[in-house]
């Protein structure tokens, strides 16, 4: 077909239109593509910016929580010790300061476990405010509401809390800046694409000729855009890594500083504790030594050294002010009996309670001291007249005589008090003590439970007593003692049923020394144990001698003291002596007073049981003068009750004594015990006792105590029917003091 101009024109026009339409279509498609790319880029940039902002916000808040925990660990030991915290509060500022460099941290607050503020630090006016003992201002709390709070734990205990206030506004601004940066990058990229599109628009219009070139340049432009984005991503990642590295380096440095600070704190705390312990130990040791040097370890009262010092000071004041002073020397009556029968623990408890009663009775200006054993001394200041001393002494006796509960038992002691006055009786502390001691012995000699003022004549009496003690020791060692024997007669058959051995002292100068003089002295000095052992051995020796002479078996009653009971070897000693002299233990009768037996009922029952097993007869002496009961008697394995002479003397004339004797005999018959009446001196008394059912009598009606040789003659006379004659001759004799191992 031949082309014509018009055809060419139309073809050209058509081709041109086609090319124009194609170009228009291509332009429109490119515009749509550019628009879609722009929308996609913006959406991708927005999503990426949001993700980056959320991640950054979470990372910063987690970092704030990590810093809060780190600070809590740093300050835990300082919160544990408020004193150490106050000392190191300046160091606390330097410790917390580096944490304030982080832009997301606006404040740090440290409180104790009760939420009381210790340290507060916050950003204010371009600087950092630091306060000790103050909380963060309320306005600041309202502004920054996001708080990370961590407990500060030391030794397993919460010592306090650390609160880190996070700056949400700073995080938001940082996030906004990041979003704007990413949006700007995206817009820059889009502008670059548009610029490339405009520059390549001509090329696009002649795409028919240069389509490949246009596609090539377009792909290059797109690739370049993506490379730019990747470059930005790599730069951002490198920045994040660098930031994390710096944070890690700063954290490691802070951790090292915390460890060093903790080590220094531990060393300081250990040194402080060691120093305090050393000081406390030295102070305690010094106080203990001083207390031990001047106080009694049992009662806590001043001892002799401190008492003498206070007495000398008091005397010096009395001399300057022309005043009077008094010393009271106190000895507890019957303490030795309780201590021997109940044991030393009971004795110690009794002394402690007696000391407490002394302190509660005296004035604050007076001094009470224990100088040994059961002896106390009281220093009285500012008392005017001897009548006042007497009133105080009587008050002390009344208080000390009240019953006491000791180790589950009710016991009762009394007190003997000697009084010496300054300046009447002596001018020195030592002389006053000596004279008060003499007066106390005088009170004790008067029967106890009373007081005596010192008199010059007492000095001679003390020397006599010391001399008597020395001579008694000599008498025991050199056999100056002698046993007298008083028969016990059966009221039914009027025959001898036994004898009681009573010790006598034949002094080479003094003659016969009364048992009332040397028995209490032996008990006070402890010689009673040796004396009692001598009596027991001499009785066994005499029993064997009588058997050898053909006088038959004569039961000998021997008195046993509380000290011998306390020794714990009484049964073994009796077995040893009876074997040594060939005497049956049944030929011995052991007598103990009612008060000694009842003082330690369980121990007495144990010893009595052992004595019964070897055949020894057991008698309770002076029955009716103590505090035994029917229940106690039933528990004791005894054989004989001895009625005290105080009831027998007036029994035939006094209705009360008669009723007491009848009651005792009825009690003995109920318990199947034999009864011995002591101190029978008249036929009327013997007849009354026999009528009441008493089986045995002992007294001057039949015979006074007499030496062994004289008793043998009496025994021979009584065997020939002359007991009544001997009794008649004995009635005209003066009563002689009787004693086994007791005064009476």
Describe this structure in words.
The protein has 744 residues and is an alpha/beta fold. It has three domains: 48-258, Beta-Lactamase (2-Layer Sandwich); 304-455, Reverse transcriptase/Diguanylate cyclase domain (Alpha-Beta Plaits, 2-Layer Sandwich), CATH 3.30.70; 479-731, TIM Barrel. It is 60% helix and 18% strand. It has 25 helices and 21 strands. The protein has an eight-stranded mixed barrel, surrounded by five helices. A hairpin with a 3-residue loop joins strand 14 (496-507) and strand 15 (511-513).
**Adjacency order of strands in the biggest sheet:** 13-14-16-17-18-19-20-21
Number of domains: 3
User: What portion of the residues fall into strands of 2 or more residues?
Assistant: 15-25%
- The low-confidence parts are 2-11, 724-739
Report the mean per-residue pLDDT as an integer: 79
CATH topology of the largest domain: TIM Barrel
CATH class of the largest domain: Alpha Beta
Which second-level CATH architecture of the largest domain applies?
Answer: Alpha-Beta Barrel
The tally of helices reads: 25
What is shown here, in short?
The protein is of the alpha/beta class and 744 residues long. 60% of the residues lie in helices and 18% in strands. It has three domains: 48-258, Beta-Lactamase (2-Layer Sandwich), CATH 3.30.450; 304-455, Reverse transcriptase/Diguanylate cyclase domain (Alpha-Beta Plaits, 2-Layer Sandwich); 479-731, TIM Barrel (Alpha-Beta Barrel), CATH 3.20.20.
């Amino acid at each position: 077909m031949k082309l014509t101009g018009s055809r060419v024109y139309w073809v050209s026009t058509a081709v041109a239109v086609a090319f124009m339409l194609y170009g228009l279509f291509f332009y429109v498609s490119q515009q749509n593509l550019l628009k879609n790319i722009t929308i996609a880029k913006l959406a991708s940039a927005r999503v990426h910016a949001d993700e980056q902002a959320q991640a950054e916000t979470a990372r910063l808040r987690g970092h704030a929580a990590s810093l809060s925990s780190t600070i809590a660990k740093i300050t835990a030991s300082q919160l544990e010790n408020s004193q150490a915290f106050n000392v190191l509060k300046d160091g606390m500022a330097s410790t917390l300061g580096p944490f304030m460099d982080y832009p997301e941290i606006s404040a740090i607050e440290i409180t104790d476990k009760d939420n009381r503020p210790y340290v507060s630090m916050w950003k204010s006016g371009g600087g950092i405010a630091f306060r000790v003992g103050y909380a963060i201002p309320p306005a600041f709390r309202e502004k920054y509401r996001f708080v990370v709070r961590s407990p500060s734990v030391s030794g397993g205990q919460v010592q306090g809390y650390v609160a880190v206030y996070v700056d949400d506004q700073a995080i938001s601004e940082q996030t906004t800046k990041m979003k704007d940066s990413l949006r700007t990058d995206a817009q820059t990229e889009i502008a670059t694409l548009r610029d490339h599109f405009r520059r390549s628009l001509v090329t696009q219009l002649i795409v028919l000729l240069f389509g490949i070139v246009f596609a090539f340049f377009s792909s290059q432009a797109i690739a370049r855009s993506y490379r730019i984005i990747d470059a930005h991503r790599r730069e951002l990642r490198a920045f994040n890594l660098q930031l994390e590295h710096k944070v890690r380096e700063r954290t490691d440095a802070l951790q090292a500083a915390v460890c060093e600070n903790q080590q220094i704190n531990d060393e300081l705390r250990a040194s402080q504790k060691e120093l305090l312990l050393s000081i406390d130990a030295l102070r305690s040791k010094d106080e203990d030594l001083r207390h031990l040097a001047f106080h009694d370890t049992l009662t806590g009262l001043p001892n002799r050294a401190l008492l003498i010092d206070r007495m000398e000071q008091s005397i010096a004041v009395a001399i300057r002010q022309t005043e009077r002073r008094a010393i009271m020397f106190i000895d507890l009556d019957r303490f030795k009996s309780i201590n021997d029968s109940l044991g030393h623990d009971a004795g110690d408890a009794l002394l402690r309670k007696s000391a407490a009663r002394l302190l509660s009775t005296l004035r604050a200006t007076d001094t009470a001291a224990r100088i040994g054993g059961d002896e106390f001394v009281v220093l009285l200041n500012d008392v005017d007249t001897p009548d006042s001393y007497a009133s105080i002494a009587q008050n002390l006796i009344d208080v000390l005589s009240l019953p006491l509960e000791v180790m589950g038992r009710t016991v009762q002691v009394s007190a003997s008090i000697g009084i010496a006055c300054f300046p009447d009786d002596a001018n020195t502390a030592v002389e006053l003590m000596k004279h008060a001691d003499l007066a106390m012995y005088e009170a004790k000699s008067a029967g106890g439970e009373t007081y005596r003022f010192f008199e010059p004549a007492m000095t001679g009496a003390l020397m006599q007593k010391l001399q008597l003690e020395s001579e008694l020791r000599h008498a025991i060692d050199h056999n100056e003692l002698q046993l007298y024997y008083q028969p016990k007669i059966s009221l039914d058959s009027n025959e001898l049923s036994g004898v009681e051995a009573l010790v006598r002292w034949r002094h080479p100068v003094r003659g016969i020394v009364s048992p009332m003089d040397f028995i209490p002295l032996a008990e006070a000095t402890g010689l009673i144990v040796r004396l009692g052992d001598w009596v027991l051995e001499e009785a066994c020796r005499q029993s064997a001698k009588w058997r050898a002479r053909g006088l038959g078996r004569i039961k000998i009653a021997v008195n046993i003291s509380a000290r011998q009971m306390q020794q714990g070897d009484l049964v073994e000693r009796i077995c040893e002596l009876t074997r040594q002299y060939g005497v049956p233990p049944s030929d011995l009768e052991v007598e103990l007073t009612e008060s000694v037996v009842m003082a330690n009922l369980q121990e007495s029952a144990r010893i009595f049981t052992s004595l019964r097993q070897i055949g020894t007869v057991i008698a309770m002496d002076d029955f009716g003068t103590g505090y035994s009961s029917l229940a106690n008697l039933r528990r004791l394995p005894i054989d004989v009750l001895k009625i005290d002479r105080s009831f027998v003397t007036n029994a035939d004339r006094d209705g009360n004594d008669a009723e007491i004797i009848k009651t005792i005999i009825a009690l003995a018959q109920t318990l199947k015990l034999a009864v011995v009446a002591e101190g029978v001196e008249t036929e009327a008394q013997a007849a009354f006792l026999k009528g009441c059912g008493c089986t045995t009598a002992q007294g001057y009606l039949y015979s006074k105590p007499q030496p062994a040789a004289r008793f043998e003659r009496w025994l021979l006379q009584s065997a020939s029917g002359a007991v009544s004659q001997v009794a008649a001759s004995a009635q005209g004799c003066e009563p002689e003091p009787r004693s086994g191992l007791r005064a009476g």
